[in-house]
Amino acid sequence: MESPWDELTLAFSRTSMFPFFDIAHYLVSLMAMKRQPGAVTVAWKNPFSSWFTAMLHCFGGGILSCILLAEPPVRFLANNTNILLASSIWYIIFFCPCDLVCQAYSFLPVQLLAAGMKEVTRTWKIVGGVTHANSYYKNGWIVMIAIGWARGAGGTIITNFEQLIKGTWKPEADEWLKMSYPSKVTLLGSVMFTFQHTKHLAISKHNLMFFYTVFLVATKITMMLTETSTVSFAPFEDALGRMLFGCHQRFSPRVKKNETKSNGTGSSTSKPTADASDKLKKKHSKKTE
Amino acid sequence: MESPWDELTLAFSRTSMFPFFDIAHYLVSLMAMKRQPGAVTVAWKNPFSSWFTAMLHCFGGGILSCILLAEPPVRFLANNTNILLASSIWYIIFFCPCDLVCQAYSFLPVQLLAAGMKEVTRTWKIVGGVTHANSYYKNGWIVMIAIGWARGAGGTIITNFEQLIKGTWKPEADEWLKMSYPSKVTLLGSVMFTFQHTKHLAISKHNLMFFYTVFLVATKITMMLTETSTVSFAPFEDALGRMLFGCHQRFSPRVKKNETKSNGTGSSTSKPTADASDKLKKKHSKKTE
Amino acid sequence: MESPWDELTLAFSRTSMFPFFDIAHYLVSLMAMKRQPGAVTVAWKNPFSSWFTAMLHCFGGGILSCILLAEPPVRFLANNTNILLASSIWYIIFFCPCDLVCQAYSFLPVQLLAAGMKEVTRTWKIVGGVTHANSYYKNGWIVMIAIGWARGAGGTIITNFEQLIKGTWKPEADEWLKMSYPSKVTLLGSVMFTFQHTKHLAISKHNLMFFYTVFLVATKITMMLTETSTVSFAPFEDALGRMLFGCHQRFSPRVKKNETKSNGTGSSTSKPTADASDKLKKKHSKKTE
């Protein structure tokens, strides 16, 4: 006999992402794509290339997960309904007369709603990835974490790679020292869901899905309202780092130049400067995962 | 009771590409590879590296199709006969005493014959790709178009990627705004054969193969005789673009600088200049797909 | 009734690589990784990124082999024991107090022992790759050579690719003219084991494994003691080159500039200069495969 709470979380975990949550995910991803320099010009000059990039933005996580598990990367193209939905949203975002969709999207409540719904899909992707990996490797908890993470936040890798191939993006060496907030939070979720799946975490899947989703949505909305691009994990990361790696450890991204310039002085003095420059960098490069 | 016409087209569709059409395809691809700067030097200094690049030129479309369908990319190496044939042609092109093969190839009738036969193989590759994709995804018409296209014209992606890895090619951002002629014509063929396969096009496969091949060969030979690198689809593209995307749409590649310089003036004034610069660029970069 | 010699080589061929030989392989690979510029800084700033790179260094050959055979590239993550072992070695190399491991590794006998044991694993990897490819393609001897080679020396491709993506490595065009010593020697081994597998070489597998391993270990130790980075195959390569490709052929890597500067004079005059500059380059870029 399930409690009302259990029934609520169970019903929540059985919600289908199609069509509304998927629409929100495509909308947010494609609005982020549209804000990239040159995206509109490409859409006018070569709609096919723009459409292809749009599909990578919408389905990138699933594509990466397929590549890692040696499944056909084109499999997402077989789901005609979702492709049609994503293509329609791409079309009306880029070609709607008078830019109506973008004007509507400029209202904060619309952005908050869409972003919140997108975060819900992140949970579903992580869970789907973990479950799918488990069907391949029964006790492969590292694989499960990797695939859950790839599905939840791997889209950026695919889109960055496409830009690298196209010559519109050149990776900076220290970009890889910084793990973005969506990346960290997805990794955390993937670890939790994997340990729940392997019965190392004493919580039911639907309850974990509920709590994790609430956490995601709450932090996302908070970040949008306060105009910060990240919730700082720095205290936890520093503590974990010191515990595992000793006092040299900095998890939080520090600009390499500052470290070099300070010439071995303690991190604390360089911290405010690095934080400020980090915040500036993050404001300028709003990538939505 | 089939008509003589049906018998003709049926017999045509059952022609085996091995060995003569395959030889033509390898010959044209490897002569194009030889014309790339530094290719001969590489062949002398590191024949293995040159041979590997040659195999990518000859089998690139199939490799890309395998990657997209999560089949072993090395599968082409299992076909010992074709590998031996392609390797022999690579060998005699690069190491034949007194460059006999290249001298023979410099005669226009030889080039026309080889190029025409190569275009025939394009049809077979598209059809093979569409059929193969259909065995994976029964109603996945987008997948079928993608795989047909990859097999027919995907080789350039593989060879460009190899050059990118080797550091001998850096993609220019606006290269992706331009779809090459072989790319466009292969996409068109892939769409037609997919719709024929899904019974949306009321024409038999062997008839479509015949007509499409005749179109390919005729346009290719015309382009070689008139020394243009493309048959202009611009009127159709512009019409299609206006219908789907409104009056902003330009399918035809325009040099980005001209668009910026003209500062919002109509495209027509910048068109002659862009066309001329396009022609110059295309003459210098003759890539054969 | 087997002779004592057969029993010896048979017992040798049945030796398990786990755990001691695997430890040696991880140790040598990760010490080479640590010597790369910036590796220690990355480990302190983003241990996760450093750990990921470490796993690519340890399992790169297997990953490449999986990619080529369309098997899940994440499969190596399912082997929890080996991952744990490699991760432990990474941890103690980068975070051991007072750098004890590195100090111990700085003794030449330790380096010789570890390098020798690592070369033993190369044989096992080649044999494993050839056998595995044969299960896919019964008579595909080219595939078998390719997979044996990928497993034995393919790790560098994976790690270079990762650095390319990260922007910490840019390929030079003429790097691909030079095949590194481990690459050449692995290709040789892969060819021999393939021909042994297809019964074209009249020697038993365990005998060939023994002789090839002795050759690898002996040449590796000789190179380390004499501080050269390669055993010169140049005489054999030149002879093979002349036989197959005529008198233009140079297999040995020559700096392109010298060839250009010497303006068509015989290779012999430029050879000492090229050799000296090669030796300088190789001393500076000690990559262990």
UniProtKB/TrEMBL annotation, chains A, B, C:
Residue ranges, compositional bias (Low complexity): 261-273
Compartment(s): Endoplasmic reticulum membrane
Protein name as catalogued: Trimeric intracellular cation channel type B isoform X1
Residue ranges of the region described as Disordered: 255-289
Catalytic activity field: K(+)(in) = K(+)(out)
Record has Thylakoid as a keyword: no
Biased composition (Basic residues): 280-289
GO terms assigned for molecular function: identical protein binding; potassium channel activity
InterPro entries named in the record: TRIC_channel
Subunit relationships: Homotrimer; conformation seems to be controled by binding to diacylglycerol (DAG).
